Amino acid sequence: MTDFLGFPSFPRAAATALDDSVLRRNLAHATGTIRAKRAAVVDELANWEQLRLAAAAIKDAALHRLDEHLEAFERNATAAGATVHWARDAAEANRIIVDLVRAQRAAEVVKVKSMATQEIGLNEALAAAGIDAWETDLAELIVQLGDDWPSHILVPAIHRNRAEVREIFLREMGRVGRPAPGDLTDDPRRLAEAARLHLREKFLRARVAVSGANFAIADTGSLVVVESEGNGRMCLTLPETLISVVGIEKVLPSWPDLEVMLQVLPRSSTGERENPYTSIWTGVTDHDGPRNVHIVLLDNGRTDVLGDPAGRAALRCIRCSACLNVCPVYERVGGHAYGSVYPGPIGAVLTPQLRGIGSELDRSLPYASSLCGACFDVCPVRIDIPSMLVHLRTRVVDDARGGAPSIESLAMRAASWLLADQRRWEAAERAAALGGKALRSRIMGGKQTLRSLPGPAAAWSEARDAPVPPAESFRAWWHRTGGGHE
Questions:
Q1: What is the rounded CA–CA span in Å between residue 79 and residue 321?
Q2: In order of start, what are the domains of the chain with their CATH numbers?
Q3: pLDDT per position as a tens digit, 133-148
Q4: N or C, which end of the chain has less CB nearby within 10 Å?
Q5: Given its phi and psi angles, is residue 260 left (phi above 0), alpha (psi -120 to 50 degrees) or beta?
Q6: What's the whole-number mean pLDDT along residues 402-410?
Q7: Is the separation of the CB atoms in 13 and 336 below 8 Å?
Q8: Parallel, antiparallel, or unpaired: how do β-strands 466-467 and 132-135 relate?
């Protein structure tokens, strides 16, 4: 999986993000709006929990027989005129796609918003081959023109406000195509119009398009893309060649399974009852759509995730982003702190499984959560993210056994030694009481907290006040009063 090279561990990146007041304001406004819309449309359904249970069961059943469904999909897609390719990793997928674009003698491609292509770093691979890749989703266009990273699964430019978008359009559009109007304002309609005019010439001249897929139907070899803007429809129908990059976990057995998914996905993602555009295509159709249809089935670590009984439920994810919009951690630090194209709670469990826990960044991601459980409550396919985070934390700890102990592990060993013997614990209580009396005599104004602690504990007290130890422990008070009867 493509790394965000040079990104620090989550705690360090989060600390930097917390200092950005504009970022926090943008995130709070956007996630709050999406949360409210989702809650309103979900409350309309009396059977919402039954739909969640059905969606989870459908995904689990598909994953249980994934090999059979993938073979059926390949067989049926091929019969319909598509060419199916298999990619074990990002390098193989990029090589396949670059070769396909070169075979068409194309110097550019237009793209439908796709997490899978971001995951494999396709834009960078195409650029290295001298091929321009143009993002056509509005938010992805903002990110690309701003030389930025996506920070949200559904709304990649969620960290930008309208004024920032206007400045990006005015500064960058003219360098790569039709410039933005000189009198452009930050009115959303004007910004959308500028993007539409800028992209129109790219749609009309592009001979190759690249897409992902929200779902793949094994029974017929069909692919499904849902979107809100119509740019995807343009990419999927106008060019002569269409290349779709599809994670192997996106396969559903049959059309009735899709019926359930198309009820839970739009409500959970955009807060809509249904997506404005749902595009479905099966191979090649005479006199309609692309003449060459290629499908790249991408593994890139998914088989490893499937092999972990405690972690495979992450493959249920349908990329709705509901977990990001309710996460108190994500709302305050944004997506860049996660160092992955998959930010937020689902990224904290999916990324370390796809990439492994070999880097400091990936080892830190399972700790990027308060374990409040809000992510599980809103997940339309009932992924128990909090339990999975605990599982991954265990893997991180187990992986570090035998090496140099961390400060945390030394502290836990000291606590284990102290709590294993009653006499040690009582001695520690007496020492704490003496320390508490001494501190209280020195603290002015009757304050009951310390602003900072010494040594390694200073990092903990940087963000919170430490309580002064009590002058008398509960145990001592209990013995002194004869069981509480003074």
A1: 34
A2: 10-303 (3.40.50.10420), 415-480 (no CATH)
A3: 999 999 999 999 999 9
A4: C
A5: alpha
A6: 74
A7: yes
A8: unpaired
